[in-house]
Structure formats: structure tokens, C-alpha cells
Amino acid sequence: MHLFDLDYSKLRALKLLRRSDGLSRVELADALHLNKATITALTADLLRRQLVVEAAPQATGRGRPRTQLSIYPGAAYAISLYPLAGERASLDIVDLRGERIHNRILEFRGQDDLEALPARCAAMFEQAIAESAVPRERIRHAGLVLPAPVDHRRGIVHSWPFDPKQRAVAVAPLIAERLGMPVTLDNRATVIARAEHWFGTEGERDNFSMVALLELGMNGARYCAGQMQIGYNGMTPDFSHVKIAFEDGRPCFCGGSGCLGSYASAHAILTAWAGSEGSSQDVWRDPHGAFSRVVQAARAGEERASSAFAMAGKALGTAIAGHINEHDPGRILVVAAQQDMLAFIEADCFATIDRQTIPALRQRTSIDFRTIEESVYWKGAAALALEALYAGKVL
User: Running DSSP on this structure, what letter comes out for residue 57?
Assistant: First the structure.
């Protein structure tokens, strides 16, 4: 969607209206930098599609009160599925303002079989819809989040962490065929950024880059001018495979070496620490418990654990500095599943960023560290489907 397309302006208008309690046509025109004729045509289309409603406020002074436009929450609904720990998944139905109307936690077993996943997900969507009070015909789009590299535009899962030999599967189209509604697919890190863009309350939400340090892996995403940056082939940027080591880099599961994820992720920290333990099998039998032991060792001043965290911070800082120098994102948000991860890498990360970033850009770039809240996941998954509704792909 081009930045100057009318459809893009409609998408921006809907997002602005959602973030406010109501805006007049004049206020929308000013915010979108559009002339009167364009904003008149734009709002007429939104009113025709019943995505917005208008109401004249009571006069509070001299002059004619301006008609206020606002989102009509019941115009349509979206449903989303987000996998949780412990072989569970959260299924959520939201209205057009993003308010959570229905939530259901369902068992989500057998994720290792990607071929059978579309049928299983479709059945879970159907169960949640049947249990909700929302009429099925009002639910217009579904969003699905999976822990894998995906083609966002075509809904294809290219590889599957549970089975390295698995071929690519067009998961979203297969589910859409069963459900009878469009399905949009994305990965975990990207929907965390979507949650910030749609539901965040602090800082710049239309222009920022995010790094997500997940339970074991990591990735990133970028928003520019209110749009998620998607590559030519439908893939979102894979920040974990940014190269930070040229020679003798650590091997990566991608088949290459020197990737950021091999240094800065929780998996990388555990890999570095496992050698000192002499029992890597025990580490990977319970990686979450093992990470807690690494944290305890670092607190106690154990050199190998402290060095692993320090290397992670320096590696992440190097990658972030390069990203700022190349893209000038204005805002960097680093989020982590574990608070301890941030606590042990923050100092080295900031020191490296300060040293490696062009001074003029560093002075103009805000960098925030934050723990991932549980609500972020359902919000991001819901935002994935809402974006499609707002973009006019269904309504």
C-alpha cells in the first residue's frame, strides 16, 4: 500500500479515529494532510461501509459545532489464535475498536505436525466462534500467530521449528478454505510490535523498531509511517540473523555463522553456559529451569555466566547501532520475556550502542527496555486481523 494511496489514507484515518474519542472532518484533514475534497470522499466511503458513525456534539460556545466521527465497534469483529506455553492457545474475538469481546483458552496439542495444523486451527476457531455471543457472520477476519518464519502475504510457513525437515505449507489459505473467511498469518515477534502500534500508550507508535528477546529465541520488527515493514517476498525482517561476526563466528541453526541470535538470545546464553556445566543434555531437557540457574550463577559472580550475558549485551548493542546508522528509526524498543535478561545485558548493550552509533543519530534516538506483558500477545494477534479489516480487504 503506497503512502499516498487513498486506501492508505483511509487506513490511517480509521487508526486515528480508534485512538481518539472522535474527530471532526477538519481535524482528520489536518492530521492526514489532505484537502477538503479528499477528506469528504474518504469519510463518505467509511460512512457508507458503516465503519464509522457521526454525531454532532452539543454546542459549547459561538459557532456551529463540528460533526464528530468515531469508529462503530459493532461494524465487524475479528478472531485470533495465539499459542501459549504448556500446549495451550488463546483465542480472542475483538470488535472494531479492539475491545476484547470473548476469550477462550483451548488445548493446543500436536503442534509438531505442520501438515495437520490447518485442520486443527480451523476447528479451534470454530469452537471459539460457537461459544461466543458474536454472530458468526459478523466475524470477518482471522489472525493466526505461529513460532516460525512465515510469508505474511501468502500465508505460508516456510520452516517449522518442531521438524527441521518439514516442507513449506500454505497454512493460512488452508484454514481460510475451511473457515470461509480470510486468514492472516504472522510470527510471534512481529505481533508484539503490532500490539505496540495498535495498543501502546507511550512514545512514538507509528515509527519505531522493536527487538523481541523471547523465551529462547529472538527476532525483530519495524514500523515506518504507520506500516509494518514487509519485504519483497512477503517476509518480515529477521533480526536474529543479522551478521555481527565475520570470521570464526558462532554457528547458527540457519546453516550460517556469526548471526546475532547465536550471541544475544537466551538460547545462545544457555549454549555458552552449557559448556561449563559439562552436561548440555540436562540444560536442554529443561531450558527454562537452566536459564534460571544461569541467572543465579551470574548474580553470584560466576565468570562464565557473567561473560555469556556480557557478550549478549555487546552483540545486541552492535546490531542495534548498525540498525540505527542504516535506518534512523527514531525509537528502539527492546522487549524480553524474562526481566532478568534485560537486567544483565542492559549496561553492556547501552555502552556498545553509545560507542558504535553515529553521534547525531544516537542523540535523536530513544531506546527503551521493557518486559513483555502477557496481554501483549492477544493484543498483537488481534491487531493482525484488525489491520486487514481496516485496510478494507474484507469490508
Answer: P
